[in-house]
Structures are given as C-alpha cells and as structure tokens.
UniProtKB/TrEMBL annotation:
Gene Ontology terms: cellular component: cytosol
Enzyme Commission number(s) of this protein: 6.3.2.1
Family as reported in the entry's similarity comment: Belongs to the pantothenate synthetase family.
PANTHER family: CYTIDYLATE KINASE/PANTOATE-BETA-ALANINE LIGASE (PTHR21299), PANTOATE--BETA-ALANINE LIGASE (PTHR21299:SF1)
Protein known as: Pantoate--beta-alanine ligase
GO biological process: pantothenate biosynthetic process
GO molecular function: ATP binding; pantoate-beta-alanine ligase activity
C-alpha cells in the first residue's frame, strides 16, 4: 500500500494502471476510519482490481463556525486499518486546491459546482454551502484519480444522491455505487463524529435510531401519514435531549417531502446532541 500526497503522482499511477487494463475504484473519505468506511472498501474491492482510498478533510465544505478545526483525525491509525484490506493507494493530497500551494502567490480557487435543486432540502437547509464544497472536491478527486467506480455510503443519503446526479449531469465516466448504512451494535449510525459525543450524549443519541425503527414499524402496521411518523421522532429525540435540525420523509430520488408514504421514500434525520450534529436515515418500506 502506497501513500500518495501529490496529485500529479496520483494521476500518473492511475493512468498507468488503466493502460494495463485494470479497473480502479475510489473511496473518498475524510479519515478517522470506522467499519462504515471499511465496508465501502470491501465493496470497492469487489468491483475493481485496484482500490484508492482518499483521506482529505475538505475545508471547502465547512462553513465558518462549523467543526473543521475539531474534526477527528488519526492518519496513522487509518493507515493501520487499511493495510490488511488490500488497498493499493491512500491518496492524502497536500496540494488539492491552488491556495494550498504557496508558490501560486494567492491565486485562489474560484470554480464551484452546484447541484441546484437536490442540494437545497435536508442538509442544504442548515449547511447551504456544504454540497457546493462536496460536489467540487469530489469532482477534483474524480478528475485526478480517474476511477471506473466511486463508492459512497448511504449514511450520507443526500450526499450520495447529489453526487450521483452530478456524475450523470456532467458525464463523468464513472459508476457511482451507494452502500448500505453500517451501525454500531446498539444501532447508532457509525460516524467519525461519534467520538466527540460524551458518554451521556452517546447514550441519548440512540433516540435517533429508535425513532427511525419505530417509524418503520408504524409503516409496516399501516401508518402512511408522514406527519404522524415525524412527530413521534421529533418528540422522542427532543425528550432525549437532542435538538432536531430536520426530520423529513422525502422521495428517494427527488428528495422532496411526501405527505404520505406511498412510493419509495426515505426518512432522514439530522439532530444535534451537545456540539455534535448526527445524521441517520432509513429507506421506508412501501405500505
Ligand atoms: N455508517 C456508515 N455506513 C456506511 N457508510 C458510511 C458510514 N459512515 C460514513 N460512511 C461513508 O463514508 C464516506 C466518507 O464519510 P466521512 O469520512 O465523512 O465519514 P463519516 O463517518 O460520515 O463522518 P462524519 O459524518 O462524522 O463526517 C461517505 O461516503 C460516507 O457516507
Ligand atoms: C465525500 C467526502 C469525502 C467529500 O469531502 C465527504 O463529504 C465525506 O467524507 O462524506
Ligand atoms: N460525511 C459528511 C461530511 C461532512 O459532514 O462534512
């Protein structure tokens, strides 16, 4: 497993692999890896001969005042976790944006990608520049690594949908794969940010998962009214001391709210426990 920090070297490696006819899969991450990330690597290994994992905490997707400075990092630990998995390259770019290179004399990055409608609901409400940053950095990674397949997790459901749309709309020559959300043994969605929860917040945050499970059960027993499903979730999370950013039942493709659970929909929640904002979701069964 090699660690590559320079984008020219990354591109050169990819091109030489492709010239030999080898398929490349890319797994983009921000590091502090957990089993959720490792499941993406397994999926990538199934789909390509060569696997690149990128580790880059992208400043371009954090607004001022968000948690960029305290985002968990453990590069050496990540390397150890990836070693046994047969990953070929860890791409840990030092020079991703022009502003990262002092010799460019302040000539800054000024090109941004917007996925105009899909970026607006859900996370787009409280993080209006988030998907602009994500779409732009993922475009850069795709242009540098030139993978055949790129793998994302459905824990970040809207992110997966936004990036799939971007790839389709802009004709990137890559297949986008969405992998199922991986949970801790007690049900909490795995997330790098979980480490920032206190023990009490960690316990209370389970209310998110329990309320989504409850919604699933209600749908199975015939409840289709979104407002009923949402109210029980908001109430359970608030009782547990959480602050709901959004709790929305939306169409799986358009991410527009639905009043009734009648077609493929997803119940997506973002909620704060202490200073940590957590995401979770379930794809709801059709009633
Ligand atoms: N629990 C999970 N199950 C499946 N995929 C996941 C899970 N957690 C993260 N991923 C996926 O891993 C990729 C990298 O995500 P990232 O490095 O931001 O980790 P994260 O755990 O989502 O961190 P955080 O939410 O704290 O930013 C994304 O495609 C994301 O959806
Ligand atoms: C896709 C991504 C690596 C872009 O920085 C990030 O948003 C993430 O880790 O989910
Ligand atoms: N996985 C989400 C990345 C972020 O919250 O910035």
């Amino acid at each position: 497993m090699a660690i590559v920090g320079e984008k020219g070297a990354m591109r050169q490696w990819s091109r030489s692999q492709r010239q030999c006819g080898r398929r490349i899969a890319l797994v983009p991450t921000m590091g502090f890896l957990h089993e959720g990330h490792l499941s993406l690597v397994s999926e990538a290994k199934q789909r390509a001969e060569k696997v690149v994992v990128s580790i880059y905490v992208n400043p371009g997707q954090f607004a001022p005042g968000e948690d960029l400075d305290v985002y968990p990092r453990d590069f050496d630990g990540d390397v150890e976790k990836l070693k046994p998995l047969g990953v070929d390259i860890i791409f840990n770019p030092r020079d991703l944006y022009v502003r990262d290179s002092p010799e460019k004399n302040g000539a800054g990055h000024e090109t941004w990608i917007r996925v105009e409608n899909l970026e607006k609901p859900l996370c787009g409400g409280s993080r209006p520049l988030f998907f602009r940053g994500v779409a732009t950095v993922v475009s850069k990674l795709l242009n540098i690594v030139e993978p055949d397949v790129v793998v994302f997790g459905k824990k970040d459901y809207q992110q997966w949908r936004v990036l799939s749309r971007m790839v389709r709309d802009l004709d990137f020559g890559v297949e986008v794969v969405g992998c199922k959300l991986v949970r801790e043994a007690d049900g909490l969605a795995m997330s790098s940010r979980n480490v920032r929860l206190t023990a009490t917040e960690r316990k209370n945050a389970l209310a998110i998962f329990h309320s989504l499970k409850r919604a699933e059960e209600l749908v199975r027993s015939g409840e289709t009214d979104s407002s009923v499903l949402i109210e029980q979730a908001v109430s359970a999370i608030s009782h547990a001391g959480g602050r709901v950013d959004y709790a929305s039942i939306v169409d799986q493709e358009t991410l527009q709210s639905v009043d009734k659970v009648a077609s493929p929909s997803v119940f997506a929640i973002a909620a704060w426990f202490g200073s940590v904002r957590l995401l979770d979701n379930v794809e709801l069964p059709n009633s």
